[in-house]
Amino acid sequence: MSAAAATFVRTDEEWRRLLTPEQYYIMRQHGTERPGSCALLHEKRQGSFTCAGCGQPLFASDGKFESGTGWPSFGAPIEGSVTTTVDRSHGMVRTEVSCSRCESHLGHVFDDGPPPTFLRYCINGVAMNFEPA
Ligand SMILES: [Zn+2]
């Protein structure tokens, strides 16, 4: 796991109570939701996307774009809200994105995004909640 000091710590038992089974699978067991399965993909309002595990704001609606992948995609996270680690699972080398506060798995970041960051944060919708501005 990342070296960042998580400040929102829960036991496995608590996470199972706190999250839905799908959220638990994705956020605590590094799973991936089916593309196109989450309503947040089509969220177009102004506001912020927060961590479903701890409530920390992760992404602003301004940075969201339609990537065509079926997962909510962003050019950049809110400063300091995520940590990244190298993920060598499934025979690929990817950069995993986790919440900096509770260390829940969120998704991955790729370097094929649009300007200005040229990054694509590919995030599981169920790992987030949306708070309208
Ligand atoms: Zn979190």
TrEMBL record:
Q: What is its EC number?
A: 1.8.4.12
> Which InterPro entries is this protein grouped with?
Met_Sox_Rdtase_MsrB, Met_Sox_Rdtase_MsrB_dom, Mss4-like_sf
Keyword vocabulary terms for this entry? Oxidoreductase
Domain MsrB: from-to ranges: 12-133
The UniProt catalytic activity note for this protein reads: L-methionyl-[protein] + [thioredoxin]-disulfide + H2O = L-methionyl-(R)-S-oxide-[protein] + [thioredoxin]-dithiol
Does the keyword field hold Oxidoreductase?
yes
Q: What class of enzyme is it?
A: oxidoreductase
Q: Does the keyword Oxidoreductase apply?
A: yes
Q: Name one Pfam family in it.
A: SelR
Task: Tell me the GO molecular function terms.
Answer: peptide-methionine (R)-S-oxide reductase activity
Name assigned to this protein: peptide-methionine (R)-S-oxide reductase
* Gene source species: Kaistia dalseonensis
